[in-house]
Every structure is written in C-alpha cells, then in structure tokens.
Amino acid sequence: MKYKISKIILISTFTINLSSSTLSTSDIRYELAKEYSSKKSKKYDIKKAYNLLVDNVNENHSKSQILIARFFLIGLAVEKDYEKALYYFKEASKQKEYTANCYIAYMYASGKGVFPNFGRAHVFAKSEYQKGNKVCKKVWNDYNLGKYTKDKGWNIGDYNKPIK
C-alpha cells in the first residue's frame, strides 16, 4: 500500500519535471531512488535507493545504470567495485546516455579499475566536453585531456570508443 501511495505522490511531483506524460515503473523507481539517495532529502535512505536501482538495472534502465555505477565508483551503500562501475557506465553509454562517457573518461584518466589511458579518456570525454557537460568539463580540465588526442592503448574488450 505504501508503494502505491508513494507512486501517486511521485507521479504528481515529477510529471512536471519529465517531458513524457506517462511514466514507466522504471522511471518512477529511478526518481524515487534519486530522492532516497539525496542527503538533502528528508527521505534519505541509501539502502532503499540501491534496492530500487537494482530492480531497474535488471530491466536495463540506462539512467539507473549510471546512478548505480556511481554507487560502485564511490562505495555508496556497497563496497567500491570499479569493475562493476565501469560495466554499468558502459551499458548506459551503449544506450546513448552520454553522461556515462564522462564517467568512463574519468575512470580511464584516474586509472580506477582500468589501466590509465589519457588518450582513451580524451576519446570518451571530447564530445560531451564540447557540449558543455559539467562532468566532462571537470574531467577534461582536471586531467588536461586536451593534450592527449590519440588513444595509444591496447584495444582489449568490446567497448573502446563511445557510441555516437
């Protein structure tokens, strides 16, 4: 019963913020997870947020993949796991959630879970940096990616360049 009431409240709250007039269950769970994961919220409950995201990730919800990847990247509600973080960022990126590319760039630039590769970080960050994405701008400037124009790393794996 609480879930249905939360759904109704959430729909009335977020319909204005979303471009779609109809919300899927995944979108509702994602918005709830964002609310639960915000320390500014009175409803802050990181474990509830994580559990909602797991349900969505199992349904291949791209925005949830980014958020759960961030949980794994910083160790929020779960132990840090860079391999899982990178996996979920890549899955979101494949679905054209371009902010995920900024996080992939960060992981390559910082060497978190991967061998450091500034050229590959440049490739993943460039497009969104040029569009003004805040995350990509920060990674680009912090790691000075503008001077690493070529990816000289090994092409191991199936995702070495972002989908356009």
Describe what you observe in this structure.
With 164 residues, this protein is mainly alpha-helical. It folds into 2 domains: 24-97, Alpha Horseshoe (Serine Threonine Protein Phosphatase 5, Tetratricopeptide repeat); 98-164, no CATH class. It is 61% helix and 0% strand. The protein has 8 helices and no strands. It has helices at residues 2-14, 25-37, 46-58, 62-74, 82-94, 99-110, 118-131, 134-142. The longest helix has 14 residues, at 118-131. It is elongated and about 45 Å long. The termini are far apart. Residues 1-21 have low confidence and may be disordered.
CATH topology of the largest domain: Serine Threonine Protein Phosphatase 5, Tetratricopeptide repeat
- H/E element order: HHHHHHHH
User: What is the 3D form?
Assistant: elongated
| CATH architect. name of the largest domain | Alpha Horseshoe
Largest sheet: none
**Structural class category:** mainly alpha
Radius of gyration, whole Å: 17 Å
As a percent range, the share of helical residues equals 55-70%
Our count of domains comes out at 2
The end-to-end distance, rounded to whole angstroms, is 43 Å
Note poorly predicted spans.
Answer: 1-21
